[in-house]
Design a protein that fits this description.
CATH class: Alpha Beta
Number of domains: 1
CATH superfamily: Aldolase class I
Helix content: 25-40%
Largest sheet: 8 strands, parallel
Number of helices: 9
Number of strands: 14
CATH architecture: Alpha-Beta Barrel
Radius of gyration: 18 Å
CATH topology: TIM Barrel
Strand order of the largest sheet: 1-14-13-8-7-6-5-2
Distance between the termini: 30 Å
Structural class: alpha/beta
Length: 292
């Protein structure tokens, strides 16, 4: 990657309907919306609701399926020099491998991100990522099915993320993304019912940043592969904090719903910080705040 700022899965679609004037080529990489073996309609409305310092969502992994991505979307990435990483999800361990295998020979796909962390999948996602053995099994299925680099996206909805991180690295993951959304809910007091149609949903945005920052710190000290920080990053200083905690790169997600140019603003803010503090290489920041 040319720099350490990426989009987060589910917040930039497939990169083809980006805001007017948004130069995707300036990013370090694009991570797509999650795709599955077959198309998914997703959850019924209501799917999203704003919360203090964040957002709840339960989109339900709506997507056109991996075949459509390979046939219709990937050819349009040919004009980009920025790498495209495809997020994938399976309903079974075997299905994770099948989706990965369908991408292995697709031009313009630079890697896969294994979604073993979404709390909003009817089947798949977080149900695999909460136990070290199943997280490792899904990761291994992908690693065995593709020659592409493999990033495992971990769930924060566990008591011991470090053991799961180690398990997926042992299973062959080339990098880790820490983390997905925190399971949460909202209630309509007047209607006396949950606001989100699925009852439970995923909390993202600035509200989860301190939690994920701690997880990045812990996980990066426990594994030897790169860690991508993802959770509540809005500006360059947020990105710097994640790098100092041990992240090699960051993903920008929910903030794009408030500011569509957020990923580029984060990148520019990071560059401003480096210039102000005479940092010549961003790797000088990685893990610099770790103590002991």
């Amino acid at each position: 990657m040319a720099n350490p700022v990426l989009t987060a899965s589910g917040t930039f679609s497939f990169g083809l309907d980006k805001p007017h004037g948004f130069n995707v080529q300036e990013l370090g990489a694009v991570v797509t919306k999650t795709v599955t073996l077959r198309p998914r309609k997703g959850a019924s409305q209501t799917r999203t609701v704003e919360t203090p310092a964040g957002m709840l969502n339960a989109i339900g992994l709506q997507n056109p399926g991996v075949a459509v991505l390979a046939r219709e979307f990937a050819p349009r990435w040919r004009r980009w020099r920025v790498p495209v990483v495809v997020s994938i999800l399976g309903s079974t361990v075997e299905e994770y491998g099948l989706v990965a295998s369908r991408l292995d020979s697709v031009e313009n796909v630079s890697g896969v991100e294994v979604n073993i962390s979404s709390p909003n999948a009817e089947r798949g996602g977080m149900e695999f990522g909460q136990v070290a053995e199943t997280a490792a099994a899904a990761t291994r299925a992908v690693v065995d099915a593709t020659t592409l680099p493999v990033i495992a996206k971990l769930t924060p909805n566990v008591t011991d993320l470090v053991s799961i991180a180690r398990a997926v690295v042992d299973a062959g993951a080339d990098a880790l993304c820490v983390a997905n959304t925190l399971q949460a809910m909202a209630i309509d007091a007047d209607a006396r019912r949950p606001v989100i149609s699925t009852t439970f949903s995923g909390l993202s945005g600035p509200a989860i940043k301190p939690v994920v920052l701690r997880m990045v710190y812990q996980v990066s000290r426990a594994v030897e592969v790169p860690v991508l920080g993802c959770g509540g990053i809005r500006n360059g200083l947020d990105a710097v904090e994640f790098l100092l905690a041990g992240a090699t790169a960051v993903q920008v997600g929910t903030s794009t719903f408030v500011n569509p140019a957020a990923p580029l603003d984060v990148l520019n803010g990071l560059r401003d910080y480096m210039a102000k503090h005479d940092v010549n290489d961003v790797t000088e920041l990685v893990g610099a705040a770790q103590v002991g």
